[in-house]
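Same chain as my last thread, 323 residues:
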Amino acid sequence: MTEQTVEKRCPFEEEYVFANGIEHYLLHYPKAPGTPVLLYLHGGPGSVESLFAYQLDSAWGEMFTHVHWDQRGAGKTLRRNGRRDRPESMEQMLADLHGVIGHLRRKYQTERVVLLGHSWGSVLGSLYVLRHPETVLAYIGVGQVVGMMENERTAYRETLEMARRAGNEAHVRALEQMGDYPPNDPERLLKLLPRMRRIQAAYDDGPASGTGLGELLNSMRRSPVFRWSDLLSFTQIMKVNRPLHLQMLSFRLGDFAPRYAAPIHYLLGEADPIAPTSLSRAYFETIEAPVKGFTVIPGTGHNPAHERPGEFAAALRTIRETL
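reply #2:
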């Protein structure tokens, strides 16, 4: 084996790590020793980011050793363990996360990691940094969820207004037919959510939100870690993660004192139709933290990391320089 061959290492690494009773899939994009480690907490629950991580790596360069975890009930972790180990509670997911972070701290010989939480991942990440700031170098919220019912109520009004401005009468009728949204009945709300998300997708962007099933599948298939079995996990997201979806409906960040002992940064889409930026901004103003940063990326929605990868990477670089 020549010296040149030795230097050409695989740009990513896959592994399964045992934590909190099951094996968890981790996808690593390692950089130079000493580079800050960033753990990406995907949305959903159940919507893995690992299959799209190659796109992020292309945009982010050498800024972070970034790691993508398929959570319990999602992606390759679901395929590995089966539905017998489906998610049961937020507490269980936080315990999973603590185990994964413990592994990363040992693997990379670092005391603290950067957490990036997207959508549902922002719920998990916010709760974790409030409990375990000693392990978090910084928290970055993207598509930050402040409170599910508040989010849905505000998002409904904003989506209806966007549909009216666009002159889309079909969407206007469909939204108005939902009545007093969101309904107080959790079961009814879960039934309405898929319809609501389809409408919102028309006013969103990015490979994981708004570009349609065809582009989503094409993006997945181009991933170097894609397997056809990954599609089976996607078909089971709602059913397997139902307990978490129900618990999320009562989640409110405002129920917790907004005193963070780690740096807090929000990177938000200007026109996020799912987690309205107006709510995130209002909550952010109440936060007490050693360092705070609030960035809105123009012309983006719920997934700015994919919608405007260059601008998102520039905002990440600014945060990286503060670490």
